Amino acid sequence: GESKMGELPLDINIQEPRWDQSTFLGRARHFFTVTDPRNLLLSGAQLEASRNIVQNYRAGVVTPGLTEDQLWRAKYVYDSAFHPDTGEKVVLIGRMSAQVPMNMTITGCMLTFYRKTPTVVFWQWVNQSFNAVVNYSNRSGDAPITVGQLGTAYVSATTGAVATALGLKSLTEHLPPLVGRFVPFAAVAAANCINIPLMRQRELQVGIPVTDETGQRLGHSVTAAKQGIFQVVISRICMAIPAMAIPPVIMDSLEKKDFLKRRPWLGAPLQVGLVGFCLVFATPLCCALFPQRSSIHVSRLEPELKAQIHEQNPSIEVVYYNKGL
Questions:
Q1: Sheet (strand 318-322) strand order
Q2: Residue 267 pLDDT more than 70?
Q3: Would you call 145 helix, strand, or coil by DSSP?
Q4: Helix axis angle, 99-112 to 267-287, nearest 10°
Q5: 141: pLDDT confidence band, cut at 50, 70 and 90?
Q6: So what's the pLDDT on residue 142?
Q7: In this record, what's one Pfam family (predicted)?
Q8: What is the pTM of this model?
Q9: How many Å is the maximal CA-CA distance in the chain?
Q10: 18, 77, 96: which is closest to 283 by C-alpha?
Q11: Among candidates 237, 250, 122, which has minimal Cα distance to 178?
Q12: pLDDT at residue number 2
């Protein structure tokens, strides 16, 4: 606790999230705070102020009159705008807080303009361009990815998404109209399956660090990388489900009503609004599905690493790794 008179103690760990990350609820509260779109409205001066509070606190200097709530608020504002490894300010649309507004606009348009080939291609391309910016802005400093690899991932994911969208569009043309509305979702899912593994190909080549319970590094594992990347692909696809599955059903029945038939221009804004409503909840809740720190049984690791760990410490049965987002 904190005394009324004295200043804040220096032992609050602001490197870690505020809430217990071993519980779903703690992770959900953390990601609701991280993805809060209101952080985009903060001015440069407010971001600087938060950065100063955080950096001073880490250096052992408490800003006079600071409360614990203000310290945590500063931490989350700082994390929302600055890259954790480089400390540089992240481009506005690459920030976690931009995920909901950007995705709601792009997904809303994908779901609205799914009938004509040029608009399908355009919106799938816009979506993958946005993904590339986010991936570039949030790339980890540990395994630097080259611009060439980023380019390959971008082109492949865009091609995969467009091919899936157009292929399924032609396949579903003689099926009920509601089926056609789910084509954009399939395209986004396919793109995620291509994009994320390509973006993180270095981890698939050299592995990711695995640690014991205390955080001591035990080596690098490709098996852990595969498991982590698979979990990320799943949670990204789940993130898209509410936004891409609920609005189409609602819109399908609404578009049959006179109200919308007389005002066709209302389709896109309505769709964007519905998608936004779904995303505000789906994004943080799906980020919270799996803990950031995942675990894997030693028996499932590569033979060499398994032998190495067994030699170092035969009592270790489970190792941990950071799965990324």
A1: 217-221, 208-211, 318-322, 293-297
A2: yes
A3: coil
A4: 130
A5: low
A6: 62
A7: SFXNs
A8: 0.79
A9: 74
A10: 96
A11: 250
A12: 47
